[in-house]
Fold this protein.
Amino acid sequence: MLKDRKSLVIPMSVGIFQFALLYLNIYLAIKNNILISQNSVAWNNIVMKFIEDYSAMLLLPTILIIVNRKHLSDFGLCYKSKKEIFSLLVVMSVLFLLHNDFTIKGLYPMFFYLVVVGFGEEFIYRGFIYNRLKCNSKVMAIILSGILWGITHAIMPSLLSNTDSYKSLLSMWSDIGGFIIMGWYFIYLQEKSKTLWIPILVHAILDYTVGPIGFLTAIGTLIYYLVKSKRQGL
């Protein structure tokens, strides 16, 4: 039984609204032939690229932060685990230097994966949706936040490839399980670190590298918090 209907309706509505917002942005950009890929970023289209990304993934977090500005710690926006946050920032900075591309084409991906993807997705699905749902049931919160994240995440390939609706739905549902598990991982990091900044940074590093360094960082962070929790008896 729900302890508070608002604790289910509001986060679920936010997830559905984000799905619709992202879908609409991508659809309109493709239809009007103005979708800018990461490989096409240049000084002459950087403003349009930022508008596309902001409206798709940062508009809703901005609204939620303004509305809940006095209670941001409830959504994990606090500076606990400062040592761990700093360590992950160092990893992200080193990865950026290793990319050895200081042009706008190299700078924008750093911003994109750290702010648009890392912060945007983690704030919506873990910071807001999960934290609002868990007062009823943590298991339900993990599953529902993972489903909403998975469905939203899966629409991009379908739209870009012009896949028909039936195949799009099959693709989305085949990815749901993976997103629930991955969402659970980020939730674990948030719960143990007591801050959303840890999953934000790990998420950004994973997407920015798409390679062994990101994977090792994710595994290393998990092991670190497992050992730390065991020592603290949590």
The helical segments are 6-31, 46-67, 82-99, 104-133, 138-160, 165-193, 197-209, 212-232.
